[in-house]
Amino acid sequence: MNLNNMSSNDKPKCPLIGQDGNIFNLMGIASRTLKNNGMDEQSKEMINRITKEAKSYEEAIGIITEYVEVTDVEDEEVEEY
User: Fold this and answer.
1) What does the alpha-carbon distance between residue 48 and residue 77 come to, in Å, rounded to a whole number?
2) What's the pLDDT tens digit per position in 55-73?
3) How far is 24 from 51, CA to CA, in rounded Å?
4) Which residues contact 53 (CB under 8 A, 6 or more apart)?
């Protein structure tokens, strides 16, 4: 899947807002979201890019947002009911 052509509709929703902001925690949540949506290869690619390319927290977050649509934890809880 070419990420440059991915719209927000193609990205799985990932509840990162309101989570512990540790980058490894956020990366794990995003990875799990991708895997749960059948996107194992994208999960591996995202983790590889973050660990090899990102030089800052902001760059790592930027990479995560290329793969998932960031949502609020509270929004996810409301949708479950």
Assistant:
1) 30
2) 999 999 999 999 999 998 8
3) 10
4) 59, 63
User: What is the pLDDT at residue 81?
Assistant: 39
Tokens of 40: 């194992």
pLDDT in tens, 18-59: 888 899 999 999 999 999 999 999 999 999 999 999 999 999
| pLDDT value of position 63 | 98
pTM for this one? Answer: 0.79
Note the Cα 36 to chain centre separation in Å: 12
Q: With CA atoms as reference, report the closest residue to 11 among 36, 34, 32.
A: 34
